[in-house]
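Hi R.,

Here's the input for the zinc ion complex you asked about:
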Amino acid sequence: MKIHFRKIANADEPEHIHGTLDVSEAVKGRKDILSVSPLSVDLKALPAGTDTVDVAGTLRGEAVMLCSRCLAEVRTKLDIPFAETYRWLKQPLLPDDEDEDLIYVSDEVVELAPFVEENFVLHLPDSVLCKADCLGLCQTCGQNWNEGTCSCDNTVIDPRFAGLKGLFTKQDD
Ligand SMILES: [Zn+2]
Ligand SMILES: [Zn+2]
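And here is the predicted structure with zinc ion in place:
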């Protein structure tokens, strides 16, 4: 998944970049992601001025994630936009001269895989729900409330009133 600056800068037509990328390593740290399919990468590279190349397109895949409330497995379609501008840099720039929107590269050949992986990780959903109104699990017995109720008392007592409750109990004695 590489681009060649000079080749693209001199091309009349955009260069298409198709490929698949295994991103399973990139989600290793996410306990809510059980598996992720290889990403289908579909990008276009085109000249965008002197020593500058635009790369844009989409990354598609599918992840099996856990519902953040009831932990059910949820198949999540991933359709992630990709857009980066690369500038070929022959000499190091002073930090003040850097443009944050550009990615500076110093080789004629650029491997896109790390940028694709980074974009993928940035766009992964923080959490998913099996359905918008998922009722979640009982914190006491673990019953899935989407499947039925339980008889646990999960009433949370505000700590400020808990003190008062004790007061009244004492008076009753
Ligand atoms: Zn759920
Ligand atoms: Zn319960």
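One thing worth noting: The longest helix spans residues 159-172.

Cheers,
M.
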